[in-house]
């Protein structure tokens, strides 16, 4: 038997949040941690460039495409049980990643890691909604969002330290003790919250959505590799993308026909302007955060010549600042409303990236980008928490699982699109600057003074693309609804006239 939300709130909610955030941090960290360890992994496994691409993409692809279904799994089997199962799969797959000997084994293990992360991730928001009362939920989502922002850009930092101090395999082994501790915490601390409803999994809808999203993600990730043209015979990147969009169109029609039979995506979610706008902003924020990571890593290692560990440390200020700002912003959104925090926050977010781009010159010191990173971190802290709070605050308890799955899906698709779009732009600009193909393929690993100016210009183009996305997101945030008016305190009831007369007579 599961517990309902009031009973769940009898647990220590902050202890529950600590368990959820530790697990959540691992899943997002593994989205980016591989980037900085690629040279050592390639050498250790004898991997080709294509293999290297899939070390990261296999994880992101499975992660992004299975989130919709996993949100429903939590509704059906219970958020705590589903969360624990996903955490167990992720932890075991992390250990396997550390022991593999071939590129094929690594790609397979990374895909299984993505499966565990996809099953686990949506349950975190549903459980936070269940264990925290409404008046404290903003602060809880603030902490959750701070961890999300920290994990998104901390991959190179943590990865660089592990690669420099130990070995590339430890970027996966580090998950094992954390995962085991989180598993114990999930079984002991996290309540078994149930909605009390028997939810259909809608497997045809899951197949259509997964296939459609997989084709779109594949096309975006692999597009530059095939020069956005032919893959083999009649199969091309444009055709893959069109097929993906067509399958998602069929998925939408299928969902429309199932709205009275517990669909995978209840359209009533999008009747909430707060959820719709916040989910879209979440995608744009991940686009910007992941889009910043690739150019900066390229700049720090290929232009400034920093080691993996040094490059990781140079990226610390932004997420560190956001860790302190996000809980305050999450708590304030209930009083001020989304627009008053998100619009200026997104402009600060974009300003930090723009300042970093301006200061990133071929002959700059690493200290030149620190001010921009601090401003970026302030903006990140201001925007990550409110988007999560606003997305979930109007969702009824029976839909929290699927809503959190949808919200996280939007975010992860934004991350995939951001990585693909910025990567494609970098390749295009490197070619325009006259950097040879062999250098472009190795750009994240080589330092070549002859191409420093070209690499720097390409990096700045990538950064300015994310600035443009931040400005568009700020305009979109103006569509958020105003905060609900606070109820006025009730005035004391006026004494009854008869009672006054009786007292006077007495």
From TrEMBL:
Domain Major facilitator superfamily (MFS) profile: 16-486
PROSITE patterns per the UniProt record, alphabetical: MFS (PS50850)
Membrane topology field: Multi-pass membrane protein
Keyword Membrane: yes
InterPro entries assigned to the protein according to its UniProt record, in alphabetical order: EmrB-like (IPR004638), MFS (IPR011701), MFS_dom (IPR020846), MFS_trans_sf (IPR036259)
Region ranges (Disordered): 487-506
Keyword tags: Antibiotic resistance, Cell membrane, Membrane, Transmembrane, Transmembrane helix, Transport
Protein name: DHA2 family efflux MFS transporter permease subunit
């Amino acid at each position: 038997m599961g517990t309902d939300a009031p009973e769940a709130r009898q647990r220590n909610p902050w202890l529950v949040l600590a368990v959820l955030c530790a697990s959540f941090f691992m899943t997002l960290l593994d989205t980016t941690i591989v980037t900085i360890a690629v040279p050592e992994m390639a050498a250790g496994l004898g991997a080709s460039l294509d293999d290297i691409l899939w070390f990261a993409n296999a994880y992101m692809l499975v992660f992004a495409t299975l989130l919709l279904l996993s949100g429903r799994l939590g509704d059906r089997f219970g958020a705590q049980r589903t969360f624990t199962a996903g955490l167990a799969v992720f932890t075991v797959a992390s250990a396997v990643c550390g022991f593999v000997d071939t590129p094929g084994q690594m790609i397979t293990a990374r895909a299984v890691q993505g499966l565990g992360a996809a099953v686990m991730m949506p349950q975190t928001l549903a459980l936070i909604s269940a264990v925290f009362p409404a008046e404290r939920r903003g602060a809880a989502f603030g902490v959750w969002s701070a961890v999300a922002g920290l994990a998104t850009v901390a991959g190179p930092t943590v990865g660089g330290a592990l690669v420099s101090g130990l070995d590339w395999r430890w970027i996966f082994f580090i998950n094992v003790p954390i995962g085991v501790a989180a598993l114990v915490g999930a079984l002991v601390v996290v309540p078994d919250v149930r909605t009390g409803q028997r939810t259909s999994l809608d497997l045809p809808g899951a197949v259509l959505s997964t296939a459609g999203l997989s084709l779109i993600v594949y096309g975006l990730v692999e597009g530059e590799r095939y020069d956005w043209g032919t893959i083999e015979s009649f199969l091309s990147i444009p055709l893959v993308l069109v097929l993906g969009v067509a399958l998602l169109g069929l998925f939408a029609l299928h969902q429309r026909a199932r709205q009275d039979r517990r669909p995978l995506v209840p359209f009533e979610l999008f009747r909430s302007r707060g959820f719709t706008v916040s989910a879209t902003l979440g995608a744009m924020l991940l686009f910007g955060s992941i889009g910043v990571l690739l150019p900066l890593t390229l700049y720090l290692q290929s232009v400034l010549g920093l080691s993996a560990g040094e490059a990781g440390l140079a990226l610390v200020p932004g997420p560190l600042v956001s860790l302190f700002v996000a809980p305050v912003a999450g708590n304030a959104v209930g009083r001020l409303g989304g627009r008053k925090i998100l619009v200026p926050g997104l402009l600060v977010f974009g300003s930090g990236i723009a300042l970093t781009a301006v200061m990133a010159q071929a002959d700059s010191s690493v200290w030149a980008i620190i001010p921009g990173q601090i401003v970026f971190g302030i903006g990140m802290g201001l925007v990550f928490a409110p988007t999560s709070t606003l997305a979930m605050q109007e969702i009824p308890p029976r839909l929290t699982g699927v809503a959190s799955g949808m919200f996280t899906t939007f975010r992860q698709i934004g991350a995939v699109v951001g990585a693909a779009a910025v990567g494609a732009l970098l390749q295009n600009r490197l070619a325009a600057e006259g950097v040879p193909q062999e250098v472009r393929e190795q750009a994240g690993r080589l330092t070549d003074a002859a191409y420093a100016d070209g690499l720097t210009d390409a990096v700045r183009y990538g950064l300015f693309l994310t600035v443009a996305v931040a400005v568009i997101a700020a305009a979109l945030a103006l569509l958020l609804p105003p905060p609900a008016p606070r109820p006025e305190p009730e005035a004391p009831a006026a004494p009854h006239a008869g009672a006054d007369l009786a007292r006077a007579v007495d």
